[in-house]
Structures
1.
Amino acid sequence: MPPIVSEEYKVNRKKLILESALKCFAEKGFELATIDDICARSGMSKGSIYNYFKTKEDIYIQLMNEQTRENFEYFKEAFLTITTATEKLQFLLKTYREVSLTEAFKNLTLVHGEFWLSTSRKKEIRSIMLERYQNVYIRFVKEILDEGKANGEFKHDFDSSVIATLFWTYIDGICLDYAVIGNEYPYCEIFRQTEAMIFSLILKRD
């Protein structure tokens, strides 16, 4: 009889693959990192890795989904003690503004940008990425904006979906600029100016 493999064993093996892949992607970039690199880092065979993931893209998507889940669980928990839509947006911007600007942050930002570009012509993966962007990121900020409209904090004459898209466009762009330019880029000040610009578009004025 074949050996019985517990669910805990499977979870731990999958976790090892993901952790190893993340290090490989950060060191080499998504395109240059290979399944062989992940094998060497994890000590697992190709066959073992393919038992859990069909492709390198599948591995990255799993990593991305787990990071997204952790981020939004953190935001939602923080929002339990935040009462206004304005404060929620400020908290989101503050979280990204005060991120630790390490080499790991820069490398992973570049990897994510590289993944977006390298898979943009692959219809199935592009669909997954767009679904995540629209139904997680855009929806999350849109709901905050709609809340602010409903309780009288924000104007009613803007499109919440457009401003939500603008919100993430700024954040993605600032993070990518920093990853490319490095410490010469005025990361925190750009975030402060971006925050002022966004609130000038949405806040009601007395």
2.
Amino acid sequence: MASDPISVRGLILRSREFKEKDRMVTVLTADRGIMTICVKGVSSKNSKNAFASVPFSLCDLVVNPSGNFNYLKEGSIIESNAGIMGSLEAMAVAGHISNILNESIFQTENSHLAYELCVYAFYALGKFPERYAEIYCAFNWRILIDLGFASVYETEDGQMYYYISTEDSRISPYSQQGLFKISAAGLKALNFFASCRPAEVFNVTLNEVLQDELRRFTTQYMQNQFEYEIKDPIKRLENLI
């Protein structure tokens, strides 16, 4: 039995073919978490819902729940983040963000923070696709913070390097086997990602050395916390080109 239509604002994380002319889209919302919505006839000529076939956009949607499915009635784009689609690197990072959120946001209690972070991440990638590496590092660490897998680190004046565990919160000024060596500048960037307002998290500029350092660290840390293989999408793309 069909229920009354519901209105939601959400980010399209994924869009895949379903049957001949339909698509199933995965949408991240602030209040309902992850929703899967069937968009009927999206591949038809002049479909009013063709916008739903393009990922990474922020949309207002009216959805008809029916049985085990949600069907899109109508909708509109609030922010297309179209700049993402013009950069292979930005698309790779946006795909990584979508995958992480799709795998980690199971409850509505943490969906609000994830939704807000994703809004800013996709917007930053759309406006500044050349900053894909910095956005990748910032997203990785902030989502780990928001989900309770990481914390702000204590630092010491004059310390040049630290040694951090990618499995727990251990940090040491001394070299220890199994700990990741990270610079004081890298640690400062991580603490900024962890403690700033969501609107500011993607404003940091990192040089190439810091980008490489934080890409490796945040990828390894995230993989150990989530307990499944996570590959750096930028590195994978570089290996293909």
3.
Amino acid sequence: MSTSHRSLRVTFKRLFRRLMFVASLFIIGWIIAVQAGCFTMRTPDREWSKAFQEKGQPLQPVFLDVPDRTGRMIHAVSVSVADSLPLVVLVHGSPGSADAFLSFLADTFLTKTVRLVAIDRPGFGYTQGFGKPERSLEMQAASVQAVVNQLAPNQKVWLVGHSLGGPVIARFAMDFPEQTAGLVLVAASIDPALEEHPWW
């Protein structure tokens, strides 16, 4: 094999690798763009009312900003027919925000039977400190308690936690058993610190 042929072959391999790299980036970008609907991070409050109307929910969402014990304002969205109904607290995973539960809050059957509140965990959604998530499960549980104290100070509440919301509500139950009626863990990671991180 001649030197020029070998050089051409090496050049072709480099070009092919670069094209594959660019194609891979394009495919990854396309997948992220398509999946972005699954990871809506912050739905503005005005969009909630519009979504409720589109889903036939006659109730209007109530937006709360409640200070936790550090003074950080915790954002939450609530919907209720009556204050006498049991309260169900919805806690999202990571990444995410309260809008992960928008379809539940807009469900007319659910809102006739329970009060619902979806919380933006510290560092997510419209809770103060967006982009700076709170790592302590104890502090996150205390943030949930601040909202519970505002909406149901003398009631036990049900908590639903998805993904990392699961350990948050488990910690809530440990720290505040007198306020906990029960837990629903949905695809929860019980101890995030011990989980192996995948290579991707």
